[in-house]
Amino acid sequence: MAGDGYRVGVLGATGLVGTTIIELLAQRGFPVAELRPLASERSAGKTIEFGSKVLTVQAVSDETIQGLDLVLSSAGGSVSAEWTPKLVEAGATVVDNTSYWRMHDDVPLVVSEVNPDALEGHKGIIANPNCSTMQMVVALKPLYDAAGIERLVISTYQAVSGTGKGAIDELRAQARAVVGGYDVPAPSIYPHQIAFNVLAQAGSFPDGDDHTDEERKLINETRKILGDAEIRVSATCIRVPVETGHSEAVNVETREPLEPGEARELLAAAPGVTVVDDPAAGRYPMAIDAAGKDDVFVGRIRRDPGNERALDLWVVSDNLRKGAATNTVQLGEELIQRGLLRRD
Amino acid sequence: MAGDGYRVGVLGATGLVGTTIIELLAQRGFPVAELRPLASERSAGKTIEFGSKVLTVQAVSDETIQGLDLVLSSAGGSVSAEWTPKLVEAGATVVDNTSYWRMHDDVPLVVSEVNPDALEGHKGIIANPNCSTMQMVVALKPLYDAAGIERLVISTYQAVSGTGKGAIDELRAQARAVVGGYDVPAPSIYPHQIAFNVLAQAGSFPDGDDHTDEERKLINETRKILGDAEIRVSATCIRVPVETGHSEAVNVETREPLEPGEARELLAAAPGVTVVDDPAAGRYPMAIDAAGKDDVFVGRIRRDPGNERALDLWVVSDNLRKGAATNTVQLGEELIQRGLLRRD
Q: Distance from A242 to chain B by nearest Cα, in Å?
């Protein structure tokens, strides 16, 4: 801690998530003594706003990583693999948004409302879960605590902003072409046209796997965060032509009986959850409503007519906010509150 | 039969499905002696093309329904309720696309590749299933025959053309506003903005039901068509901003073990099915590819990692074609082949 706050680095400061992290640090009054925006060489020299200040982005280097208490990182996996250990070596605690560290045994994978105790005893690196996992486990946690979870069947409806700024531009350019009646420009971010289409591929298929890395994250991270390797998970991760806000259809088979009304009450009382569930009146969670908000929205809570031990849920959240930046900042707050920054 | 063909009426001739039916009758060389396009008063006088002919749409009335052998009907439910019995009374066999007759005990609900034998002994009315059910059961039938089906968990990604022409216009107008940066016009077809959004409501919620009528159709019609009331079904029907082509994520728990490779072979050999399943090479079924085609496309065929008795499938088809018009025309062909038109 320096002066009346912490020296906070944001790695990947110019990306969609990095920008949102910086916005949230200002909005939430995070105790910042120094904010240091870091990025690749390519983005160095750009300026970003932090509250009323204008800051210049610095290239990440052995020099620019010195003297930080906390780094909120949202660079790519390879950048994280290289720089996270160096940041820890230089004395910082790192909350990392990439998938690189998430499944390491000695790296806690933490959702602030779900398993904050996992922060205790960290070794400098804390992993922030994948967006589609994050919002789902916030909704599942109260149900898990009440009745256990035997099996999940998940289908996602994922927004393009999870892929980055280029994906939003690609969706818009394609949509403009379709409504304008001219040739749709060839995709460069996604393997196929995303505008007015649906892609049965969010992420990529590593090593001949029949599931995408996104689907594997949903399966593996859910178990790690809930601390239960017995949960059986089917995951289908689909990209839809939405800018921001992931939606998920989740079939939850509980271990003990749980009525939809009980689930609704548990969810209404859960931190970080807003229940929007009056479908006959047209009230259910929607991506365009969730965008820009921090909560996870849950609706369509009902008994699976094919399984008396299962519930169906519709879970929507801003993939850049609770799905990424909000949780990162919340973990920073939690680390401070618990006195868990490595030097304080 | 009159001359060298049949006197065929198309009720709802100006709608998206009706237009497609007429197009298919010409394309497939259906044995038509007379084609009579029928619609509501509002559409009477419009002209439609049938092959090289231009025909004038007639208002459906006690006079205009006389002397038809076969009526392919795709009007609204209330029109069907009123006119189907009158058409049968006047001597026609009716293949009806609305939900009105589907669950009647003495009305067969038929998919040409799945249960054509159900046509035998019909009483003048044959029901054409709902689009989302239709494409799914075509893909499920070979798996059902090989291994039985215990349980289905279905999430749909449904195109707007299922709702009609107005829905396509609404999606386009909203998309134009979003990419143009001006205010999105208020929706009139759907309860909320559909462009760049996802709606957890395909259909409506009747009588305080916590499932939409579309979800109930998927549950009930699947059982009726497969002739198995024991199949347990969870259904979540979602509207996505796609013009044509419904996609479905289907988790299938079979009664007997069934390997993904076996399922792929069964599907590749099944009538009306095209397997598109090389995801690492970016090959999986897509709405924009399925649009304008008659087959049901199946891919992402894989073991559910959470259930050794379950498979995950991705099923896509043109909701106006196999989901509606194609099956209607196929049933007409099947009725002729089997000598089951009421007067021949």
A: 4
The pLDDT, as a whole number, for residue A174 is 98
ipTM above 0.85, yes or no: yes
CB-based contact A153 B279, cutoff 8 Å: no
Are residues A306 and B233, on separate chains, in Cβ contact within 8 Å?
A: yes
Model confidence, pTM: 0.96
pLDDT per position as a tens digit, B178-228: 999 999 999 999 999 999 999 999 999 998 899 999 999 999 999 999 999
Residues of A in contact with B286 (CB under 8 A): 192, 197-200
- Compute CA distances A121 → A63, A84, A96, A104, B127, whole Å: 28, 18, 16, 14, 64
**Is-contact A11 A40, C-beta < 8 A?**
no
Low-confidence ranges of chain B (pLDDT < 50): 344
Of residues B192, B208, B282, nearest to A282 (C-beta): B192
The answer to whether residue B106 is domain-embedded is yes
Q: Which residues of B touch A196 (CB under 8 A)?
A: 175, 241-243, 287-288
For residue A343, tell me if it sits in a domain.
no
> Do B167 and B236 fall within a single domain?
yes
If asked whether residues B144 and B198 sit together in one domain, one would say yes
CB of B286 within 8 Å of a chain A CB? The answer is: yes
Tell me the chain A residues in contact with residue B192 when contact means C-beta distances shorter than 8 Å: 282, 286, 288
- Whichever domain contains A196, its CATH number is 3.30.360.10
Nearest to A246 by CA among A169, A149, A322: A322
Please check the confidence at residue A343 and state whether its pLDDT lies above 70.
no
Cα–Cα dist A192/A185, whole Å: 11
Backbone angles phi, psi at A53, to 5 degrees: -95, 150
B194 and B227: one domain? Answer: yes
The total number of structural domains in chain B stands at 2
In terms of C-beta density within 10 A (0-12 exposed, 13-18 middle, 19 or more buried), how is residue B22 classed? buried
The CATH number of whichever domain residue B14 belongs to comes to: 3.40.50.720
Task: List the domain range (segments joined by +) for residue B174.
Answer: 133-319
Active site residue B131: yes
| Shortest alpha-carbon distance between residue A305 and chain B (Å) | 6
